[in-house]
Every structure is written in C-alpha cells, then in structure tokens.
Amino acid sequence: MIYLTRKMEFSAAHFYYNPEWSEEQNQRVFGKCANRHGHGHNYILEVTVAGTPDPQTGMVLDLAELKQLLEREITDRFDHRHLNFEVPELAGCQPTTENLAVTIWRLLAPKIRQGRLHRVRLYESPDLFVDCYGDTQ
Amino acid sequence: MIYLTRKMEFSAAHFYYNPEWSEEQNQRVFGKCANRHGHGHNYILEVTVAGTPDPQTGMVLDLAELKQLLEREITDRFDHRHLNFEVPELAGCQPTTENLAVTIWRLLAPKIRQGRLHRVRLYESPDLFVDCYGDTQ
Amino acid sequence: MIYLTRKMEFSAAHFYYNPEWSEEQNQRVFGKCANRHGHGHNYILEVTVAGTPDPQTGMVLDLAELKQLLEREITDRFDHRHLNFEVPELAGCQPTTENLAVTIWRLLAPKIRQGRLHRVRLYESPDLFVDCYGDTQ
Amino acid sequence: MIYLTRKMEFSAAHFYYNPEWSEEQNQRVFGKCANRHGHGHNYILEVTVAGTPDPQTGMVLDLAELKQLLEREITDRFDHRHLNFEVPELAGCQPTTENLAVTIWRLLAPKIRQGRLHRVRLYESPDLFVDCYGDTQ
Amino acid sequence: MIYLTRKMEFSAAHFYYNPEWSEEQNQRVFGKCANRHGHGHNYILEVTVAGTPDPQTGMVLDLAELKQLLEREITDRFDHRHLNFEVPELAGCQPTTENLAVTIWRLLAPKIRQGRLHRVRLYESPDLFVDCYGDTQ
Amino acid sequence: MIYLTRKMEFSAAHFYYNPEWSEEQNQRVFGKCANRHGHGHNYILEVTVAGTPDPQTGMVLDLAELKQLLEREITDRFDHRHLNFEVPELAGCQPTTENLAVTIWRLLAPKIRQGRLHRVRLYESPDLFVDCYGDTQ
C-alpha cells in the first residue's frame, strides 16, 4: 500500500458568527474572526490517496484525472469565494478549518475511483492545520 | 550600512472592482478577483530598515519598538479586515498588492526613528509579491 | 474525529554530555554536540489535538486557550533558555530532541481539556525532527 | 516509542515509458513525462525510524551512522543519476515516485540496526509526494 | 516604481560536459554533473517586472497576460525537457544556472509590454540560485 | 554580470550583555536575550558572489572551491559554537545578527578569488534577517 499526496492552494474569505448568540458572545468566542466584513486565507490542501501502484504505469492513480477532479470539486467551488455566502455545502455550520476539511472529505471520497481517499489535510495558515481521515480513525 | 528585515503576517479579504466599468469589463480585467463577495489571503510582509549598528547594542534598531510599531500600524489596521470596506487609507483605489505595499510604505516611513525604511515587500501568496522602495529607486 | 495542529517556535541552547564517560567517549559519541560551551537551535513545535468539532463553534478546541497554554508551558519554560541548566524537567537526561519531545508530551497531555493530545512533533532543524504519541502507539 | 525523521535531497533524471505500448499510448498515459530525452527533479527524502531512546545517549539511533548509511545506499546510488539507465534496482519498472519509494524502503529496511524503519516519504516536487510503510500498513 | 515578482516552476534534465576537454578534465571540473546520462532539477523561476501601477487597475501589468507569456516562452520550452538536447537557445553553451538565467532574460525582456523586466532569479535547488539583471547592473 | 547565491546553515549559541551596564539596563534593552546561560539559533547564511560566467564552464565560480571556503571559514568557526566565548573575531562586540553578518563579510570578501563578494544575508530565524554589502552601498 502506497500513500500519494497532492498539494494545491485556494484563496477564500470567511468569518465566524453564531446568529443565536449576542454580538458580545460572538466577540468573546471568535475574537477578530467575528468581524462580519470577513477576512481571508491562502488555504493549502493536501489530498492523500491510498492504493497499490498499477504494474503497467507504476502509479497509484492517474494524476491528470486527479487534477481534473480537484479543479472541478475544489477550485471551482472554493477558490476566490466567500465561504459564508457562496458554498451551499457549508450552509448552517461555521466555516472553520475543521468543518471545511470534513466538507472536502465528503466531496472527494466518493469520487476517487483508483485507490481510496486516506486523508484530507487543510492549512488555514502555515501555523494552523487540520487532518481528516473520514470515519476510518 | 546594514539592512535588517522583519517578517510578519496578516490575513485580510479583498476584491477588485472598478465602479466606472460595466460588470463585463470588471470580469474581463479582474477575472475571479471581481467577485464582490470577496476572497482573501495570508499576506506576508517584510519590512527592511537600513542603518548603522549602534556600538553599544550592536543593533540597527530596537526590535521591541519595531514590533510595537508594526502591531499598531499594520496588524491593528489590516489583520482580519476587509480591505475594501475597513481601511480608509485604501479608499478610492483598488486594494491590489501594489497599492497595499505603497500604503504600507507611507504609513511606516515617517515612523521609523532609528535608521530609515529601505524596502516594503508584500507577498499576496507564495507565488506573487511586490517590492516598494518609496521614491528612492 | 479531527486532528488540529498548531505550530510554534522557540530558541534554546544545549549540548550533550554524559558525565560518566571520559572526554574522549563524549567526543566520539556526541561529536560537535559535546562542546560544553553549548550551541543552539530554532526549535519548531507542532502540537496536534484530536477531537470532535463543537457544533456551536465548529472548533475542536478554543484556540485562544491553547495559545495561553503553550505560552505558559512551552514558551516560558524553554524559549531563550539553556536546556542543560535552566529546565528542571530535563535534569538527569540528555536534552536530545527525543527527550525534549517526551518532556513536552508529559507537560501538555494532562492540561489539554478539550479533545486529547495526539502528537508532539519537534523539529531541531528543518532536516531533523521527532514525533511522540505518548504511550498510545 | 519515538519516531525520528531525517531529511535529505538528491537530484536525478527520469522519464516514463512502457515499451509494450505504442508511442501514442505512452503520450496519452504519461503526457510530458514520456519524453525520452528525460527530465528531472530535486527529490526530497524523509526517512523515519521508530525506536526507544537509549538511556545513555537519549537518542533513538546514532545519527552519524544513519548519515553514512544514507550516503552509501541513497546518495551514491541515486544522486546525479538517470533513474532509467543507471539504477539496477529499478530495472523493469517505471521510475515513478511510488516505485522509487518502495525501492528505497527495500534498500534501507534491512540495514537499520537500531530501531526499525517506519516510513519512507519521497517528494518528487513540493506538491507531490508518496509515503511507504513497507508491509506494516 | 513598483517591482512585481511572479514565481513559477519547471522540471528539466541536464549535464555539464565540455567536448574540447578529456573525460578526466570534465570529471575534475564538473564532478558528478559530468555524468552524460544526465540528472535533473525542479527549477524555480522568479520573474520581476518594474513599473508604475495603472490608476484604473492598480496593477503594474496584466497578470493573465504575464501568465500566458511565461507558459509560452518558459514552460513550453523548458518544462519536462532535457536542456542539453532540446533547447536550441542553449546550444553551444553549458546549461548552467547562470547561462539558463541569461537565456531566460533574453527570451522575456523584449516581450514584456507593460513595465520592463527588472530581474530573473533562477533556483536550481533551494540552496543555489542566480540573479540576472540584463545589462543594467 | 551574474549574481550567484549559495545557502548554508550553522547552529550556534549566544546572548547579549553589555558589561558596562547594570543587570537592570541589560534586561531592559536586551530582554530575554540577556539571559547569560545563553540560547541559540539555526542560522541560515546566503553568500552572493557577482561575476561573469566563464565561457568554458558557464559558471561564475568553482562551486567545489566555494564549498571548501565556506566550510573552512564559516562552518569550522561558527557551527556548534557559542558566539560569546569561542569566536575571537566577535570579541568585544555584541554577537547580534548585524555584527555577525559584518564579521562574515570581512572573513569572506578577501578570500573570494573568482568574482567578488556582493552580499552576505544572515537569517537568525525565518522572521529576522540582515543584509550586508560591505562598503559598496
């Protein structure tokens, strides 16, 4: 079993706000992230697929196909978007790095046709990232 | 003469839009950046000060003082902000990396008390950055 | 289950020396690291916490609380310190990256209140790092 | 149990070509990588060894010995080489990152004398890497 | 005057060999680089353009146009190529980082239509790079 | 004219202390750096040499010779050393990044035989570095 990881980037805006809370509670819990004008990040996404290299190609999966999948499911949906307003999959939950990673897992897992999705790692900044392994761990 | 550079980060949202143009022209010129919901970046700022090391301290400037200046002038003004709506210094101009670097130069240059501001380098992403040297070059 | 990782840095001095050995044996085993004037590193620490995002906040833990914990337990104890002389928790063992990571695990594990500590990764340099998972692996 | 990782680099040339296929099929499957003049990469290799720190040295293994092993088995074999023509261990298989990582695992695993080889991570570029854990996962 | 820099990558193979020298002299001067099977690198190219931001767009140049130029002149010519055999512009000279940077300058300088080319920086590896400013410095 | 830059690392310990000042003044000016047990850094040094590529080799200078020079003048003198106690060239001045860069310039400039030393850049950490151009700027 080999684990292949592809890295990509997208830029998006977001803020954190719980409408059931007062302005004060939002400020206290979310701090500067509660600013409803929004701020943003260069997200870095690492997608890891586990599989056995094909004897003919020596590859776990077709990298051109993976690139197309990532452009269709990730770039087109998240890049240069505001996560609070433009991504239906995130409606009703805070667009935190945690929830964004889970959403990306759910979008990609059923579409990986060679091998299986092993991990989604998402960096919000060089100093903060989350890993999601679906329900396998 | 020694050039000392301090690196820092801030996160902000922005979009590009020229209200004198049609929607079509904005799309054509600015592409995905014209999305008025906004997107965002982890900006990386490098501030370079030129000076002669003080014989007593061996330093071009007091790094604690520089840190306070950068927090007051840069972090408080730009971090977790939407550049189109919350930064008066950028009013009336596109919040491009170019214009943002010039604005940062103008904010910092008169406030550097030891040495003189030599360069402002601003990364919008790891693959795109601008340098501003004021009017000296 | 989501794994959230926070990265931070600290600078410290250390050397390796076994007082039960001769000078020659220390030189042979530890090489340049046996220089008792000491040398130092910019250590990079990655702390990973495993947990389930809170439905209200979308977060595995309170990042401001984590930051305070890391400043109190890590920065105040290790930053700008000499590991051989100023850290009681390391007394009696070589201040290797391995032992330092285990020490950090023991300091942090009982203090993480939301989720549980999953991994401590410590870089001594960009080319050398260790991972500690406590007794779970 | 502690996991220690050492990073190193080597530069090599390669191309992908299946002699049982037509030129067209090679182009379709391998794209630009099928160019038989070859291209190349700065490979980055991370070797992770799992073990228990020695009480006397505080170390999982002797780093000087590991360095010699990596120079003898990896640098001398792969650095400044053309993987299609000069590495007998890769004969008969595509020199993909996947196959190269498996080959490196097989070369190193039996030669690690303190601790055991846990993971081989190989970056072909900053955006593409594979992990090999032998047959343990 | 603002200096805007765009970073990009390409992968290529090369070797150093002077046909007027004996095999021994080639080995002595070029070392492992004289291996005529070739080796390769992930080159990183930084292209810096100097100009004045356009008042309407706030930009030194049209980034989409720059991207097209770089793909046409750099990616199509150098990426996944063997520099000794497939790049006519390098015929008759060693494909060193120095000569490659000069060649890239000559290809790009006359084609920059907004602003002027200020610097070509080319990394052969993270530890070795060259800067070319044309004949201006 | 081409500018070639070579990057290397060394690890060292240091502290800042002015013996003509009281303990209180040292603390006020140097903060945590005044801790006389010392702390340390992974210094990253970039040495830039300006020259014209040799027509026969295509190179500004002999990289093997440069490597030997850097090992003899820099690694042997600074690596795994305590800058306050073991480097005569730094005696009588604070071992700040500024003074260390000037010292490195003075050590290397007269020894570069092909081309001329153009710049010494020294990183004390990823967020703080200084540039020294000798007396040329």
Rg of chain A, alpha carbons: 17 Å
Shape label of chain A = elongated
Mean pLDDT of chain A: 96
Number of domains of chain A: 1
* Category from helices, strands and their pairing of chain A: alpha+beta
Lateral arrangement of strands in the main beta sheet of chain A: 3-1-2-4-5
The largest contact between protein chains, plus residue counts on each side, is: A-B, 22 and 22 residues
The number of helices of chain A is 3
Tell me the strand percentage band of chain A.
25-35%
Task: Give start-end ranges of low-pLDDT stretches of chain A.
Answer: none
CATH superfamily of chain A: 6-pyruvoyl tetrahydropterin synthase/QueD
The tally of beta strands of chain A, per DSSP, is 5
- Assign a percent range to the helix content of chain A: 25-40%
| Biggest sheet details of chain A | 5 strands, mixed
